[in-house]
Write a structure and sequence with these properties.
single chain; mainly alpha; two-stranded antiparallel ribbon; 5 strands
Length: about 325
């Protein structure tokens, strides 16, 4: 594949299929992923696809364009060596893959045997991540846990790992962004990222992630973490306005360091403060070519491709409400 397609923020279906074909034709015994979330997401699906009797990854996708099959052969073992702190991909069994032909950016996998055999998290490998991407990745990890904490699937185990992730990111992400050589901060954010990976194992993200996947499916140059940041204030304000889990928003405000939080709106203040501290408070959808009149298209794509996360929301979100979040977040 051309180098330009390999450098996109999310791995493409064709790249995963090429890697699986290489592993199969060369008799590879295992796959090693050395890189960030996209590398690990691609690797785990290469390891899953290589032993199968098909070259088409979308045979194992559960959307209108997928064939909804279950792998017959066991995946190859794979090793995750993460060089970023954002996706938690080292400790989950699915990977986000983009199919540009169908405008689908979705989690693929989750089948038995797809967890990494070994997961290596060494913050020294994250030292040279640029400040901007340290912030984007850190917020991705944060949103995994924020979403999980308000999801219908929250439970005592998920509450524990989510609180650890939120507290560490709130305290240490600004330091990691300001100084990539601050290894105390890098270590804390790396720990938080892995905890947020566990959050997805024992709980679930909500529709915020589906909504961002739609954004970057249509605009693939948009980094996932940046897209999440762009919609986050309006997304969480929507749920606060619905009053479906007020106490949980107060909890999360306190986890982010606002010890005197007494109302759900304090969470939005804490979230905005963290975004300002990390220099990501003025990201614009328009800078990536997203138009305001795409809101309904994006809302429909989010539901059609990642509807399972809408089912984890604290209450039902109508399509018009989803489009409204995009519209209010647009600038």
């Amino acid at each position: 594949m051309p180098s330009s397609t390999r450098s996109l923020p999310t791995p493409l279906k064709a790249v995963v299929e090429e890697g699986a074909q290489f592993a199969r034709s060369n008799g590879c015994d295992f796959v090693v992923a050395l890189g960030g979330g996209s590398v690990m997401d691609a690797a785990k699906n290469m390891a899953m696809l290589a032993p199968q009797a098909t070259d088409d990854l979308w045979d194992f996708v559960f959307t209108a364009h997928g064939k909804k099959q279950v792998p017959e052969a066991a995946p190859l073992p794979w090793i995750a060596i993460t060089t970023s702190a954002g996706t938690g991909s080292e400790v989950d069994s699915a990977g986000v893959i983009t199919n540009p032909d169908t405008k689908e950016k979705i989690g693929v996998g989750g089948f038995p045997g797809m967890m990494a055999t070994y997961a290596i998290v060494d913050p020294e490998l994250m030292r040279t991540v640029p400040a901007k991407y340290t912030a984007y990745q850190g917020f991705d990890a944060l949103f995994h846990s924020l979403e999980g904490y308000i999801s219908k699937r929250h439970n005592p185990m998920s509450d524990m790992v989510q609180r650890a992730a939120i507290e560490n990111i709130g305290k240490y992400l600004p330091r990691a962004v300001a100084d990539g050589n601050d290894m105390e901060a890098r270590s804390a954010v790396a720990f938080a990222n892995t905890m947020s990976g566990y959050s997805m194992d024992v709980s679930a993200c909500t529709s915020e992630h589906s909504m961002e996947h739609a954004m970057s499916a249509y605009h693939p140059a948009l980094p996932h973490g940046a897209g999440l940041i762009m919609i986050s204030v309006e997304y969480f304000s929507y749920w606060i306005g619905r009053h479906v889990c007020d106490e949980r928003f107060i909890d999360m405000a306190r986890f982010l360091g606002k010890a005197d939080a007494t109302k759900p709106e304090d969470f939005i203040s804490a979230l905005k403060d963290l975004q300002r501290a990390c220099g990501v408070d003025d990201l614009k959808m328009s800078d990536y070519g997203i138009q305001k009149d795409e809101a309904l298209t994006l809302a429909r794509n989010a539901r059609e491709t990642m509807g399972m996360l809408f089912a984890c929301d604290p209450a039902d979100m109508p399509e018009a409400d989803c489009a409204g979040i995009y519209e209010r977040a647009w600038k």
